[in-house]
Amino acid sequence: MTIGVRRRMGVEERRQQLIGVALELFSQRSPDDVSIDEIASAAGISRPLVYHYFPGKLSLYEAALKRASEDLAGRFAEPREGPLGARLLRVMRRFFDFVDEHGPGFSALMRGGPAVGSTATNALIDSVRQAAYVQILSHLRVEDPPARLELVVRSWISLAESTALIWLDGRRIPRGELEVQLVHDFAALAAVSAAQDEEMGTLLRGILKEEPADGPFADLVTRLISLAS
Amino acid sequence: MTIGVRRRMGVEERRQQLIGVALELFSQRSPDDVSIDEIASAAGISRPLVYHYFPGKLSLYEAALKRASEDLAGRFAEPREGPLGARLLRVMRRFFDFVDEHGPGFSALMRGGPAVGSTATNALIDSVRQAAYVQILSHLRVEDPPARLELVVRSWISLAESTALIWLDGRRIPRGELEVQLVHDFAALAAVSAAQDEEMGTLLRGILKEEPADGPFADLVTRLISLAS
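YS: structure for the whole thing
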């Protein structure tokens, strides 16, 4: 029966099926806890046949992670239309969708661990961070970012990761609240930098000028002023 | 001569010396690039003698990392006196001192890598994060933090890590500016959360009430209001 299935699927088709099955299992539980036997069983094939397509669990894990990385990077794509705050909020919604779908696997990967700290997995994580960074700069219409803007954008990306990880650990705060919060956090970190540096101040004023009075950035400024008074 | 030195030092003394020598080398270059031969040579002993005290490079690396972790956690200790903003700024100075002293090793560790992603090293990193978290809560005089405060504190700790890592990559921004910026970032992230949640609002107002008019928190609010107007 195994051979029958094998004959019906081509090599690449079978590889893609195995990656999909593995990604689903790696998403639901820590990858350390998923065995090749389970993957074989979920794919309806024998254990030796899995090894025929992937030399070991790590290579299957890396292939699954590559697919997940491409999926996540794809969710950052957002048309360059309308207010920036609203665009960022839509991306945050899709980011939390992804985190929600891959919860335990995302946690295990980002917290590091014996099976997942390889050079290849770190390179994939960095490639997703870089994709996020490039997207944000293109929305800000900045080609050659000053060091302080690069710091704000990259450190905010790491803040989004840690916020998602903390959310996954118990889900004690509604994710919709955190999606808005991260948009506000971006504005807040940019504002802190702009408060100290003139170049950042000019840049931020240019961005805020185009934001609508009912957008998330304007909302934050109003709330902060009321909090401070 | 090697035996002569060996006779003069006790086992624990020799272990501590090797840890110190290794930590210095692991701090100056990525731990992957440091060999046992180099450690032996810097300690003035033979390679087999190093293996007599530590079974391999990983165990020596873990011992060096343990010492560095305790050193860093010790720098978080700050007397509960005077305004909070000034206390946090002093801790940030000591944090950047540490990052400065251990630059390449700190980067390699926090960015992950084949030799450094072990369960033991991850546990040490987590223990330092936890020490920072406990210190901050104790300064805020909060024993049982609501989920939103825990999120603000823990995500700010990860922001401090990523800010330090980005600073190390080229040192294009003066560290003194980033020390102040991280204090402001803490206030800003707390303010964003407080702007959405009443419990956080009450907590933050209580903290800000005790801050002096010339402290870093008051400074930030003044700058933000001028930026928004």
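YS: worth flagging: Chain B touches chain A through 49 residues (CB under 8 Å).
IM: good catch. Also Chain B is about 75% helix and 0% strand.
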